[in-house]
Amino acid sequence: MSVRDIPVRTLADVPTTLADLAGDSAVLVVNVASRCGLTPQYGGLVKLQQEYGPRGFSVVGMPCNQFMGQEPGSAEEIQEFCSTTYGVDFPLLEKGEVNGPDRHPLYERLVETPDPDGEAGDVQWNFEKFLVDRDGAVVARFRPGTTPEDPALVSAIEKLL
Fold first, then answer.
1. What pLDDT band is residue 1 in, cutting at 50, 70 and 90?
2. What distance in Å separates the CA atoms of residue 14 and residue 102, rounded to the nearest whole number?
3. I need a labelling partner for 77 at 20 to 30 A (CA). Which of 7, 84, 116, 117 fits?
4. 5 CB contacts (<8 Å, ≥6 apart)?
5. Residue 141: which residues within 8 A CB-CB, separation 6 or more?
6. CA-based angle 60:145:104, to the nearest 5?
7. CA quadruple 143, 149, 154, 157: dihedral, nearest 10
8. What are the residue boundaries of the structural domains of the chain, listed by start?
9. What CATH number is given for 3-160 in this structure?
């Protein structure tokens, strides 16, 4: 099964898949949190969505509370924060775990992908990014310190479009 076909639920609790959410677009899957030092990356993710969305690209965020409890809110609180604070207009999935025994099946597949240093395995922190091509292959992994504006990330997105 392709990563694009793994069942997920939206923040509004609607069952779907990445393929249904993003159509035939390339996807950047990001575990997000509202109370993290990296939370301002939402602004850059919105810009990526706006710039590349019309060309067949979508950001998809998965709220995660596994890192120092930095995403404690309900689905409604998360949606409100994201839309009013950052103008998030890309899909958000239900809050889920990205590491450990309760890791979401989507992340079971994503974490198999190595980062540029060849390291696969657990997500390090909030705002780790996985780039999925139109066929469902995970083609790149960017650790949390890589901002949405980083030339390596932008270049990888542009190569898929």
1. confident
2. 20
3. 7
4. 17, 18, 19, 136
5. 110, 113, 114, 115, 116, 120, 128, 129, 130, 131
6. 40
7. 70
8. 3-160
9. 3.40.30.10
Nearest to 18 by CA among 142, 126, 130: 130
Helices 41-52 & 75-86 angle (0-180, nearest 10): 70
DSSP summary character for residue 12: T
Any idea of the CA torsion for 53, 32, 18, 148, to the nearest 10 degrees?
30
Whether the model pTM is above 0.85: yes
Token readout for 76 is 């409604």
User: Could you read off the pLDDT of 78-125 as tens digits, one per residue?
Assistant: 999 999 999 999 999 999 999 999 999 999 999 999 999 999 999 999
Distance CA 59, CA 29 (A): 6
Say how many residues make up the chain: 161
> Could you list the active site residues?
36
Question: Minimal CA–CA distance to 129: which of 38, 40, 31?
Answer: 31
Neighbours of 43 (CB within 10 A): 15
